[in-house]
Design goal:
There is one protein chain. This protein is an all-alpha fold. It is built from 5 helices and 2 strands. The chain has a single domain, classed as Up-down Bundle (Four Helix Bundle (Hemerythrin (Met), subunit A)), CATH 1.20.120.450. Strands 1-2 form a two-stranded antiparallel sheet. Helix 1 runs parallel beside helix 5, helix 2 runs parallel beside helix 3 and helix 2 packs antiparallel against helix 5.
Length: 158
């Protein structure tokens, strides 16, 4: 059992992030099993399905590290996600990532999640709460992208 959170919103966002990341991964696996390809893109994060998955995992790790830095918590000791890894090793890394998410944010008061705003890695100011919301939405947006890819592929078969 995990310790109680001082701010229940943090607990909700950590759990939502895990749920949505797992949901993205399930959709990603379905696309991979169907042999689907991403549309051509100059963005290396969209070069292929492997790159997209790596992008999501790297971002999840990055959001967590950023939030920990702002809250002055010890950052997770987690290497970057493996590329083109054997599936068992990658699944173990994902479980370690999600376990790290569950370790943090327990002690911070609610106010720390709203003020101040800090510059993100892309220079947009975020509060901790808004970055956690961003971390939840990121896999949702890419799952939606993959669901549309699957729907277009089905339409082409008809």
């Amino acid at each position: 059992m995990s310790p109680e959170y001082k701010y229940g919103g943090a607990r909700a966002l950590v759990r939502l992030h895990e749920r949505e990341l797992r949901s993205f991964l399930a959709t990603w696996k379905e696309c991979q099993a169907r042999g689907l390809k991403l549309p051509a893109s100059e963005d290396p994060d969209y070069a292929d399905l492997e790159s997209l998955r790596h992008h999501l995992l790297r971002a999840s790790r990055g959001y967590l590290a950023w939030c920990c830095r702002q809250l002055h918590e010890i950052e997770p000791v987690l290497p970057p996600p493996p590329r083109q890894a054997e599936e068992l090793a990658l699944n173990a890394w994902i479980e370690e990532l999600l376990a790290e998410w569950r370790k943090h944010f327990h002690e911070a008061d609610e106010e720390a999640f709203y003020t101040p705003a800090y510059p993100s890695g892309w220079d947009t100011p975020y509060s901790i709460d808004s970055m956690l919301e961003h971390a939840v939405m990121h896999p949702i947006r890419h799952r939606y992208q993959l669901e549309n890819l699957m729907a277009r592929a089905e339409d082409e078969l008809e």
